[in-house]
Amino acid sequence: MRTPRQAARTVVIDPDGAVFLLRSDNDEVGPHWNPPGGGIDPGETPEQGARRELREETGWHDLSPGPLLCTWEHDFTRMGVPVRQSEHIYVTRGPHRGPVGDVSEAHAQDRILDWRWWTPAELADPKAEPLWPPTLAELVTAIQAAWAEGREGIDPVHYGYLPNPPH
């Protein structure tokens, strides 16, 4: 039996279309890349949780989650507890920069190993380490097309459960 867990993340896209991702590690899943985010605290909405997590993991206080991009569920083990995590993924535009200030405690607690900006081509590379969500490359392509047409967002995609790639 898996413990339900609510989480939220924010995909940050720079003016050239690159996406900021964190490299995380998990015993069950292994190294993978994901947008900044994590568990929603009691009393928080998914958007509030995404905003707090973005600040904690990047030190960026000037960005807020924009439109909802997708929702998805997946299984993994967090701190020894098997969970089924339901995630809300938001998107926002932001400058090309690294984390600001000392985010080392948040990174150590969440087993964040590294960060970097990914081009859309790098996201679509089948040889890259796994992405959370696994459909991230397609979602980034869809939001960039919407922005090119003058729209702020896309109709959010609700995937339901998606299995993680094997470790």
Molecular structure report:
The protein is α+β, with helices and mostly antiparallel strands and 167 residues long. The chain has one domain (3-161): Nucleoside Triphosphate Pyrophosphohydrolase (Alpha-Beta Complex), CATH 3.90.79.10. The protein has helices at residues 46-58, 104-109, 120-124, 136-148, and strands at 3-13, 19-24, 32-34, 37-39, 68-78, 81-93, 112-118, 157-161. Strands 1, 2, 3, 4, 5, 6, 7 and 8 form an eight-stranded mixed sheet that branches. A hairpin with a 2-residue loop joins β5 and β6 (81-93). It is globular, with a radius of gyration of 15 Å. The model has no long low-confidence stretch (mean pLDDT 95).
Element layout with pairings:
Blueprint: E1 3-13, E2 19-24, E3 32-34, E4 37-39, H1 46-58, E5 68-78, E6 81-93, H2 104-109, E7 112-118, H3 120-124, H4 136-148, E8 157-161
Specify the structural class: alpha+beta
CATH class: Alpha Beta
CATH evolutionary superfamily? Nucleoside Triphosphate Pyrophosphohydrolase
Helix-strand sequence: EEEEHEEHEHHE
Specify the overall morphology: globular
Contiguous helical run count? 4
At CATH level 3, the topology is Nucleoside Triphosphate Pyrophosphohydrolase
Overall pLDDT score: 95
Helix content: 10-25%
| Most strands sheet | 8 strands, mixed
Please mark out the parts with pLDDT under 50 across 5 or more consecutive residues, or reply none: none
Number of β-strand runs: 8
Report the CATH architecture. Answer: Alpha-Beta Complex
Beta-strand share of residues: 35-45%
Radius of gyration over C-alpha positions, nearest whole angstrom: 15 Å
Number of domains: 1
Cofactor: Mg(2+)
Region (Disordered): 26-54
Organism: Kitasatospora acidiphila
GO molecular function: hydrolase activity
